[in-house]
């Protein structure tokens, strides 16, 4: 394979719940969930059944036809959110690509070719297609590949003055992650989201919430926007949506979709695939239940309390940010840049964690992790911290 990844030496071969086993039969507690993807853990019986049942019926039929799992999933997503229309695709980047194209199309249709400016935030991540790396706020992902698409402005999160300078009559979209994931699990202040909403409305620009990582129960709300009091015009999601089966979705209103995403304007060969939609529907049925979401919040509070205590014991974290079962442990300045190395140490201690940039250890567990798995993982995390930071 091309060397764009630098995988750890551990090769997981089997999983069950929040445990994974490697080629040597060693077990690990999975605190990464495949980067916030396996929202119901590994080998969940309900998802297995949904996959097997659909696999025996039909795998793929293309978008020349529709299919029952896609229709059902779209109806459920619309019933549970602000949305009235859904576009299915296969990843977060594709969902954002669709959102950005739709926002541009809408603005150009309504106001002409000048209204193409997209406001985005430094440090944000929206995927790896050329449009989404250009909109994402991390130059290292978008530079060195020739000219980037025009009309994209990056400003700092929470910089109200810069925002007011940047937004204008040619703004077609403002795109933000309500909780910034790859840059450290940082929740955006609700008053700032409100300001984005007001400015987008004032200039008739689309407000896009990238909930690829924050969506599908991750924060303890079904979608993070539901806890902010601010409603977007377009919402993108993927990662946890399929519980491990690749699927992405862009959600929007009928007014926007029906006028501007007409037949032929956008598409996808695999988008809305029946297998993906069947598994996502089964996943959605579980994570959208109030009981499961309440459990996410209870377990998240427990995990945050223990992680803060671990941080005090070894003097390693300056802050532990909790957004549901999605936690960012920010290293103290003396350990700056060492999150990646800690990830290896944690694996040696039998717990698989993530990073979010060089200074934040990120944890994203299954949303249905058991108390036993959570505490065993935290015990192993404690041992890893002792070896790595106290040694
Ligand atoms: C992971 C992620 C993406 C990209 O998703 P892919 O499925 O890798 O294309 C986009 N936005 C956010 C916020 C993400 O966390």
TrEMBL record:
Its EC number is 2.6.1.11. One of its GO terms (molecular function) is N2-acetyl-L-ornithine:2-oxoglutarate 5-aminotransferase activity. This is Acetylornithine aminotransferase. Pyridoxal 5'-phosphate binds at residues 92-93, 125, 210-213, 269. The modification N6-(pyridoxal phosphate)lysine is found at residue 239. Binds 1 pyridoxal phosphate per subunit. N(2)-acetyl-L-ornithine binds at residues 128, 268. PROSITE patterns: AA_TRANSFER_CLASS_3 (PS00600). Belongs to the class-III pyridoxal-phosphate-dependent aminotransferase family. ArgD subfamily. Keywords: Amino-acid biosynthesis, Aminotransferase, Arginine biosynthesis, Cytoplasm, Pyridoxal phosphate, Transferase. It is found in: Cytoplasm. Its main location: cytoplasm. Pathway: Amino-acid biosynthesis; L-arginine biosynthesis; N(2)-acetyl-L-ornithine from L-glutamate: step 4/4; Amine and polyamine biosynthesis; ectoine biosynthesis; L-ectoine from L-aspartate 4-semialdehyde: step 1/3. It catalyses: N(2)-acetyl-L-ornithine + 2-oxoglutarate = N-acetyl-L-glutamate 5-semialdehyde + L-glutamate. It comes from Candidatus Dactylopiibacterium carminicum. Gene3D superfamilies: Aspartate Aminotransferase, domain 1 (3.90.1150.10), Type I PLP-dependent aspartate aminotransferase-like (Major domain) (3.40.640.10). InterPro entries: AcOrn/SuccOrn_fam, Aminotrans_3, Aminotrans_3_PPA_site, Class-III_PLP-dep_AT, PyrdxlP-dep_Trfase, PyrdxlP-dep_Trfase_major, PyrdxlP-dep_Trfase_small.
